[in-house]
Amino acid sequence: MEHMDASSLFANKTDMVPWSYKITTNNFEQKAEKIEKEISTRNWFKNNAKNKDILPILILDENGQKRPFHYKDIIKPKESVVYLQ
Predict the structure, then answer these.
(1) How far apart are the first and last CA of the chain?
(2) Alpha-carbon distances, residue 52 vs 48, 55, 63, 73, 78 (angstroms)
(3) DSSP letter, residue 20
């Protein structure tokens, strides 16, 4: 298995210390966004992180298969991004 660092895993440079604290103190919401039009993970992150602090975790396909949200992936229509906010 190939090593992925945090920036590859979340498609952006991510400081995990604040997220670790939020998760430990249960100070977050888990959300999902269904994708209508094909988009790169990098562009999805850029579009959705403008005014809010988010941590994308998984991409869920229409059959329920999960894969990590990471750099250089494409999110297809009918897939969902699961993220923390």
Answers:
(1) 29
(2) 7, 10, 29, 22, 24
(3) H
15: which 2 tokens? 């400081």
User: In the numeric block, which tokens belong to residue 17?
Assistant: 């210390």
| Residues 6 or more apart whose Cβ sits within 8 Å of residue 17 | none
- State pLDDT tens for residues 56-80: 999 999 999 999 998 889 999 999 9
Token representation of residue 22: 């939020």
Give 14-23's long-range contacts (Cβ < 8 A, gap of 24+).
Answer: 14/55, 18/53, 19/55, 19/84, 22/84, 23/84
The distance from CA 31 to its chain's CA centroid, rounded to whole angstroms, is 10
Query: Are the beta carbons of 14 and 7 closer than 8 angstroms?
Result: yes
pLDDT of res. 19: 85
pTM: 0.80
